[in-house]
Amino acid sequence: MTVWLLGDQLNPDVGPLQSDDDHVLLIEAHEFAGRKPYHPQKLTMLFSAMRHFRDDLRDRGYDVTYVEAESFGAGLDEYFEAVPGDDLVLPDPPSHGAGERFREMVETRDGTLTVVENDLFLSSPDQWESWMHEDGPKDSYLQETFYRRMRRETGYLMDDGDPEGGEWNYDDENRETPPDDWSPPPVPEFEPDRLTREVHDWVIERYDDHWGNPDLGDFPWPVTREQALTALDHFVEYRLPEFGAYQDAMVGGEWALSHSLLSSAINLGLLRPEEAIEAAIDAYESGDAPLNSVEGFVRQLLGWREFMRHVYREAMPAMGAANQLDQAEALPDLYWTGETDMECLSEAVGHVHERGYAHHIERLMILSNFALIYGADPQELNEWFHVGFVDAYHWVTTPNVVGMGSFATDVLSSKPYASSANYVNKMSDHCKSCPYAVSKTTGENACPYNALYWDFLKENEDLLRGTGRMGLMYSHVDRKDDEEWTAIRERADEIRALARDGEL
Ligand SMILES: Cc1cc2nc3c(=O)[nH]c(=O)nc-3n(C[C@H](O)[C@H](O)[C@H](O)COP(=O)(O)OP(=O)(O)OC[C@H]3O[C@@H](n4cnc5c(N)ncnc54)[C@H](O)[C@@H]3O)c2cc1C
Predict the structure, then answer these.
(1) What is the best residue among 45, 263, 267 to mutate for testing ligand 1's pocket, by most ligand atoms within 8 Å of CB?
(2) For the segment 464-493, what is each residue's pLDDT rounded down to a tens digit?
(3) Whose CA is nearest to atom 26 of ligand 1?
(4) Where is the domain boundary, 93, 116, 139?
(5) Ligand 1 centroid to residue 133 C-alpha, Å
(6) Does 460 fall in a domain?
(7) pLDDT tens per residue, range 189-220
(8) 302 belongs to a structural domain
(9) What does the angle CA 9 – CA 13 – CA 14 come to, to the nearest 5 degrees?
(10) 3-class SS of residue 469
(11) Shared domain check, 107 and 131
(12) DSSP label of 460
């Protein structure tokens, strides 16, 4: 029997490696990585992490077969030619249908494939099922109730059956913006070693159609387990204390703020979510981090990450094509060029281009909010996220981008995360240095978010007014007269034309 591990299962403690068998198969599939213009730092990180993992396993005494091939099919051909009829064991891949596809590929090559539970996630499909049917079947998913259930089941941040500190959620303490004289805490850098540099040279040469900064620069992405653990320690020591307070803030010139920057390592399997959660709780218990930061961080991993994975499982394949608002505009070129006078978008796109990363609020309230109110096709936006972000995989971008960010399906929320310029101005300092006027909705230089926002509400009135959760917004809609609506529509059309011409 051989344990087959994929590029997002790079952990020496995964269940199947705990058996007596010491044979491991890893396949690098190259053609797959050329199907889209993926960020070169993402490809470098992934292939370098796989090769480091191969070496790490060999050091631990495993017999590793490492196949470099054009496709998984070609890799399996090569493998089964050398080891005919082998029995493979694979942790369940999170991507929709992948386990079944791999099983068929193995069986047509006269091998067998057993797909076992993927213990790199904290909750199993069975746990989700039992939550879904607790107190009768649920007809919609609610992250907060799932999260509370997970807190109870794991005992994380629980005090004798009650939530630590008396509240389940401290989000009302987590909406601050840093003062002008705030200095952001340091960010770790991982000097690329010889192997990473070799991979990077090869990536640049082979995938010359890539999008994103081709240099490694101050490469902040762990490619080994050791680096992932260092990144976790660094976060807990320097950034966790202020993580909560500034979680939703955006500051010009600052790409990381106090975010953990751990998603790429966790999604590769280099770091287990429970390791990050427990390190944060330890910091709280030893008085080194406040509860609002620690609870906020725990909720992201124990609540949101697990929740998104299960919602994806349940909602695919429909979610992969969902577009309930029938949005069909092409994604503006500025998402690729970064060329726009809009300060907030220019910053956020620039962050993605530079390092394959933008933090949560830039993703949700700048990048996807703008695409949503602009009318962009949600599946094209999903593809853009998938290409550009170091932590992006279909299972995690799809619920976040198509569900949460684009409201292309209502399985995740009953109202869209749509906002005007007000939100951006409240949570960032971008508007101060932006040539667009944040408080103007129509006329020359009016901030594009405003007219697009009202136009979006008007355009989707039938669906959104009926949700019952947009009452306040529609009370503002109802106060606008025909003259205002004509001006709003004109400005929204003008903004779309400017964006199409690359002149926004
Ligand atoms: C439109 C959009 C697209 C996104 N695309 C991705 C993606 O491709 N890959 C990805 O891992 N996350 C994605 N997220 C979720 C979240 O924004 C990122 O996980 C987070 O910004 C990563 O940065 P960090 O590690 O510094 O996170 P922190 O802000 O420090 O959060 C801690 C951890 O919580 C987890 N987490 C938090 N929120 C989510 C969430 N909604 N879904 C899944 N995990 C979460 C991540 O593992 C993250 O590392 C997306 C969110 C939105 C709104």
Answers:
(1) 263
(2) 988 777 888 898 999 999 999 999 999 999
(3) 261
(4) 116
(5) 27
(6) yes
(7) 899 999 999 999 999 999 988 999 999 988 88
(8) yes
(9) 45
(10) coil
(11) no
(12) T
